[in-house]
User: Fold these one by one.
Assistant:
Number 1:
Amino acid sequence: MKKNILLVGPLLTRSGYGEQARFALRALRSRPDLFEVFIKPLTWGKTSWITDDTPERRWIDETIEKTIGFAQQGGQFDISLQVTIPNEFQPLAHRNIGYTAGIETTQPAPIWTQKCNEMESIIVVSNHSKNVLERARFEGVNDSTGEKVILENNTKITTVNYPVKTYDSLPELELEIDTSFNFLTVAQMGPRKDLESTVKWFLQEFANEDVGLVVKTNVAKNSLMDRNVSFNNLKNMIAGTGIPERKCKVYLIHGNLSDEEMHALYVDKKINAMVAIPHGEGFGLPIFEAAYSGMPVISIGWSGQCDFLYDREIPPKPHFYEVAFDIRPVPQEAVWDGVIVKESGWAYAREQSAKEQMRNCYNDIINNKEGTIATNSCIRAATLKEQFSKEAMYEQFVNCVINEKENEKRVEEVENLLNDLL
């Protein structure tokens, strides 16, 4: 019998959690024999909403209307799947599952552990998130008894990564870029992405060379006002380097790009490599997309991107230009009540290492040096497309939503049916 499942999440927003919610929706829709899907959309900060007229969007709109009618008639949900940060988890159905990008720091807020424990199970997008949430442990005092209490995770947490995206064709981008070699960085303007260091260190390393840095960014939305703010912020970053004259260039790409246009950007002949040195990622979707598109990647080996930048051997082998880093406390301006606690840490890329790895990548590509990370990037991309295929990720996700007893019963029913046929 199909289960009524309520998907709660910002699936109509242009955000990381929006992408995550859409993946969850597609995984559930891949099994119409198991789920009757209902939708409760959420906003996500100040991010823009998707306005594309697609079959999926029309199906979502129809399902939202169906959900409203179902709830008004007193309908009950068997399962809720809540795509958000843990402090927003709440009991909405007979079974409640939290699906979160998790955490980009070394430690969650105590409320995250408390709320995760209120869920039947948790799904996260990376092993970094899984490990941090599982290891969290907090000491406190019971206000009524004065006894010392320990708060720690007691909920099953499972990692399901994102799937790769494939397209029959990609649009041609008319990029106004005239430098002969170009790095790409895709990062929202904010403390965690450390775009300022990326721009500064690039300019210092390649000041007198025919090299460009293409910056796909925004502050919150993709409006004209946001573009003006992003442009001025980027100008200030460049001015702050103290390099008045230079041959290298920085390009700004701003505005709504479809998935197809983003993937066209990763394979554009004018773009040579991805550089990303964030302080932490729940998963690092743009880095992932660049890697499975065949781009060499320069990054740090910490947080969510480790799931695809390293292989699955023991010990794991890096398939990227590995920037050294240090773990230090998050800055005060990044502290976010209930989300990023002041006791937690971030990874900080080391300046000299970042410059060296950008240079190594540049030299390997222009010299077409065999056996390097750059020249092997297409081979690595093929491996990622196999390991993170849509079919494999959908199956893993569905298995996390179906509880173990139901899964065992389903397997038994299939086996009995096969025995009857034989």
Note: DSSP finds 13 helices and 16 strands in the chain.
Number 2:
Amino acid sequence: MSARRLRSDRDDDPGTITLWIVEDDDLFRSGLADLLNSAGGMRCEHALRSCEEAFKLLEKVYAPEVVLMDIGLPGVDGIEGVRRIKAVSPATDLMMLTIHEDDQKVFDSICAGASGYLLKSSPPGEIVRAINEVLAGGAPMNAQIARKVLTMFAGIAAPKSDYGLTDREKEILKLTTEGLTKKAIADRLFLSYFTIDTHLKNIYLKLQVHSRGGAVAKALKENLL
């Protein structure tokens, strides 16, 4: 698909917000379109059942200023739909309007380029306010989802723990992950077998594991080395 200009680039209906809906629930889609068209200053130009319909339409018409996108769509899902529409029309704001509060879906939607995330159960007035907010540069989310996003990014930003391992313990753990036996590690580091055994016991204690396999698994899973 080639990039499309926004409908607002045209001279007709200046000041009117142009919107599309992509939603496979016929009743909800129809009700939402009626809400937007009655809100004043907004026009729902197209209410579509799938991302595939939106992709085809973008080849023929101007892109809208805002797309309200469901996540759980048949065929191409809403997250991939956001990614592909943003690639064609970067200036279009996409808002996820869905029943899902799943952390991964929130994260994936934001990474794909969504500008906001609201539940379908949101009051009509909240949906209208959110559209105006996103066009003003905001990122509207309901309180529950905003808390999930903050918690999720706090976890990502949290410093990685090294469990207090010393440099020598990290060196021995690394050799352990490479498959070396205690004797081979001792020979490599010019230490006694019993010294390596003591270090490994301390490593197990710090990592809160009970075996060589548990230590290796944790080191690899948490990228400790």
Note: The first helix runs from residue 26 to 37.
